[in-house]
Amino acid sequence: MSLSLSLRFRRVKQISRLLYYSGDCFKHQCDKGLNSLPFSPKPIFNDGLVRGFHFHQHRFSTSVDVLHKHAPEVDLLSFIKSSLDTLEGTDHYWLNRSVKNEEFFGIHGIHGTFLVLAANNFDCGIMFQKLKAIQERFPHITIMGIKLINSSDRENQIQFLMTENITFPILLSQQTFPQIKEGACYILFRNFKSPKIYNEKDVSPEILCQDILELQMQPSDDSDWLNVVRSTTWRQDHIAKDEYICSPLQNLVLYYPGCVSADESESRLFISDCNHHRIIVCDDDGKIMDCIGSSPGFEDGDFESAKLRRPAGSYYNATEDCLYFLDSENHAIRRADMEARLVETLYPISTDNKGGGIFNWILNKLGLETSVRNMEKSEVLDPKRLYFPWHLLKSDDDDTIYIIDRRFQTLWTMDSGSGKVDKIFEGSPKILEICGQLIRQNLSTFDKIPCDQFQQKTNNVFALDGLPHSDRLSSLTTLQNHMFICDKVRQRILKVNIESGVCLDFQLSNFGLLGFPYWLNSPLETCYAGGNGLSDTAIDHLQQFDLLPGNIDIKLSVDVHADIEVVEPLHESCIWRQARGAAAEITGMDDPRSMDKVGVAQQWYDELDDLASPKADPESEVTEDDLDQNTAMEDDKIRINSCVGTSPGTSEVIIFAVLYCKLRKIPNSNDGNQEKYAARILDFLSSKRSGKRERDSWNAYLLQSKGDLRDLIFTKLVHIRVRINTSDHPKAENDRDFILTDSTIKVNVLLN
């Protein structure tokens, strides 16, 4: 009898432990016993699709057994399918899946072709390069990565995303999948049926592409999805919109400054702001002088319209007054004429015809063109050709240009006169033999700098044998008696005196030249074509007015949050306006009264004219006193003036402005709580839809910095909409003419 009661008591105790550990205290207990268990112990339910459950579905005898039991293997396809509906669940979270692509996942989430890279770790950059090449060839298929994680790996996850510039979603999980027992594999399937698994890590991209083509040729009853794939609106350039990127660090002024070079004659620096796909030109004091590139893509032209994709190493040719640089993810060598402010592609040779007239230009701006640029991307890139180049060196005689990939596995030589890539060498020993002396020469001044002057992680994957600092080959340069170093941890450029080794203050300024960041829109020029292309951006203020037809002056007064301060006055180039419906935006027009009537059709053509009109002269230097009369800053309030002309009907005025801000420093305060600063920065930069685990990962990354996080400068978006109901025109005394009424409205905005 006593034995029976003892067994019952033990059984009740076990059940009570299970209930206790499955509640709020579970994570606390796990943190004590096993730091690699960040997930709560709940089962996955997906209509019977999942073939395994969490460990608490199994019988156990003590709590110690619970903490040390491994999760059973789960079918990978079933797990992916069950994870598409939510950004974060009990057993997963998406590290870089944004709200912008939720519609795609919701509507087509279980349809179409998928290519998945599943790995136990992400020390496999070559494999991701293959995925990027396939993504260029097949932009309509769904590509994703899956990684097994533990809670101590958060900083490395973020570092990997930024270093490799991952533009497809990454699904993180702690489950165990039978498909990746050998470390990593590719999985290809369609509509979550009949997966084909490639266990070879070095499987050829050509094999993957051939199998994708064969899979897409198979008949399917999913006619709607096929219609989407065949639609001419699917453009290769769509992958250039970075639609999967939702990193809070996008809003920093620099987002992975990977490379830098200098012009000694004019004391200029050329900073490759890699993940913003642009090159910033500044002087040795940090004052921005120009910017090369506007958004991700592949397009030549003036600095404002040229498109790059992750520019890397560069060098300045003083004789030609040209900057040669590598367009890494376009696999190209390009040249920027600094006097003419034009970008041209040296390699590969473009077969694109830029003709076609104004109609083709309009279709291109609206995203409706039926052809794409042919930059030799119709086939998967051959690794023997230029493939993800990163380092750019010039020979002593300036006749030969050396191009090296980031992992020092391939060397290409280009004749500077003809612009042709003539020789290719494989392997790091050959690279050392040919360029070793040149590499050591460029790195020689680095040994003079104390290592504690900056914080930078060294990835041995990117270093040559015998040259531990070779991964920094393109991320440092000398100008006069100073060295400038890319600090990829704190997203800044360091200025170090070579003689004393003292790190000097170097902060960028004159941000008005950078204009409106592309990553804050979707994009702006296609807003009217989509009807509401900016609907995924939170609205800070919405107000409605009933007015008479005529010209309306809109005076905005914006109160910024008490925790932030605006580092520079708002410049007109950082404001974007649009009027829709029975209104047209006429801010800055010399004679706005000439617009007697404003209709929808007239507005359409006016907006196209605005797109086609040349921009203001970018060579004119922007100063703090050179502010447009439509913007001002008084009493810590941002004032923005806009003017629209209205006709009878309804209209909406959309105003976007970008403020360059940083956390406010309280005078005479010794508060150095970096955790608090990181949390506040993420409050301003993170999407409200971001999950807790994703936020924790970004927070851990920010806390890597040893500097004061209050010095980080970031962009804050202001989104305001004014809706106007306009009645009929008042009649004049002769009953023939109509009366236009000038109105002024004031809008007060408080930023959250």
From TrEMBL:
SUPFAM superfamilies cross-referenced by the UniProt entry: YWTD domain
Taxon lineage: Eukaryota, Viridiplantae, Streptophyta, Embryophyta, Tracheophyta
Gene Ontology biological process terms, A to Z: proteasome-mediated ubiquitin-dependent protein catabolic process; protein polyubiquitination
PANTHER family referenced in this protein's UniProt entry, alphabetically: DUF1618 DOMAIN-CONTAINING PROTEIN, NHL REPEAT-CONTAINING PROTEIN 2
Protein name: NHL domain protein
Gene this chain is encoded by: 11419278
InterPro entries recorded: 6-blade_b-propeller_TolB-like
GO-annotated molecular function: ubiquitin protein ligase activity
Highest taxon above the source species: Eukaryota
